């Protein structure tokens, strides 16, 4: 204690919701506990520079090359190096660090996260798209590099915590809990007309815009099903989703003897981030303590496959295997952007994803990250065509908006 050298830490996506919560965990780790290597972001230059100054980072990187001068100016006199562009983010991820948080949103996180993984150190993985799009590759690379992969998505972190490792073969299935999002109790007609403002307002968790909308459509849970299959080497039929409105039980593991082990906590991502930071130790975390007597009751119910087709699509992608997860995620990201721009109605997202999956199937396995990027581009283009065709068919023409 005390005499141990500081841990070298990097955060990819330091300006986002997970990134800022990670900085908070570092603040609570105490003086001298960490040495910050790289912090990366994209648009929020002031926030990036402020965090880099506070933690005396070695380097701060924006993914947007046009923001280089802004970042350099914001870091003037701080001694923090400034860099910009996609390559610079990947290079920063490859700088030696003992613990890296991978929290870039979307498939933009693939290459930087892989660069961090290849260091063979500890990778705290928040970006779920890495496992959804390239699960097989990531798991293989982690083993090859000798990296420790710690899940930060709250459900997967919960499963990691209650996984009885010596009895790994006795796992019957996992139960991924889902809050059900803001539309959990809405009728189908109202969901069909939901606006981006309604979709972004999550009842329990405070998250980035994209993942909040994915929670409303339950695509987030669909991505998490695929993520869990890869992380814990499960068959598709061993992954089940359970709606749990209180978000207190973060997920469960059911064993062959009928035992079900659950992990509980307040809905605060600093639980999972802090767990991954201190693992294998447990340390005090700045999170609310559970008052189960005050909460009183925990509810569980089966998800509705009609109002939330994302779960069925994810299961189909799991069963199809290979690059199906990549196609699902890329089509979903394109559809999500169209929904956010009001070019696609809410239920149009699942319809576009379903059309793209059936148009592109069957799916080959991914041999390399290039195969993943090729499928990602193909599925995005296919989704774009379908979105454009729907706009033409609706007679609204270019620039028209739904909702
Ligand atoms: P966010 O939108 O709040 O932050 C995203 C971060 O990625 C920012 O730092 C941003 O600058 C950076 N970024 C965005 N586009 C980029 C690009 N093209 N290149 C490089 N960097 C880019 O997102 P978030 O909610 O913090 O989520 C981050 C990841 O963690 C996502 O994959 C999400 O699914 C996952 N996750 C988030 C939560 C949560 O509670 N927020 C929970 C579980 C998993
Ligand atoms: Mg989650």
From TrEMBL:
Record pathway: Isoprenoid biosynthesis; isopentenyl diphosphate biosynthesis via DXP pathway; isopentenyl diphosphate from 1-deoxy-D-xylulose 5-phosphate: step 1/6
Domain DXP reductoisomerase C-terminal, residue spans: 264-381
Domain of life: Bacteria
InterPro entries: DXP_reductoisomerase, DXP_reductoisomerase_C, DXP_reductoisomerase_N, DXPR_C, DXPR_C_sf, NAD(P)-bd_dom_sf
GO molecular function: 1-deoxy-D-xylulose-5-phosphate reductoisomerase activity; isomerase activity; manganese ion binding; NADPH binding
Segments forming domain 1-deoxy-D-xylulose 5-phosphate reductoisomerase C-terminal: 149-232
Gene symbol of the encoding locus: dxr
Taxonomic source organism: Albimonas pacifica
Catalytic reaction annotation: 2-C-methyl-D-erythritol 4-phosphate + NADP(+) = 1-deoxy-D-xylulose 5-phosphate + NADPH + H(+)
Function: Catalyzes the NADPH-dependent rearrangement and reduction of 1-deoxy-D-xylulose-5-phosphate (DXP) to 2-C-methyl-D-erythritol 4-phosphate (MEP).
Residues holding NADPH: 15-18, 44, 127, 129, 208
Family membership: Belongs to the DXR family.
The protein's name: 1-deoxy-D-xylulose 5-phosphate reductoisomerase
Enzyme Commission number, as recorded: 1.1.1.267
Catalytic class of the enzyme: oxidoreductase
Domain 1-deoxy-D-xylulose 5-phosphate reductoisomerase N-terminal span(s) in chain numbering: 9-135
Annotated binding of Mn(2+), by residue: 153, 155, 224
Residues annotated as binding 1-deoxy-D-xylulose 5-phosphate: 128, 154-155, 179, 202, 215, 220-221, 224
Needed co-factor(s): Mg(2+); Mn(2+)
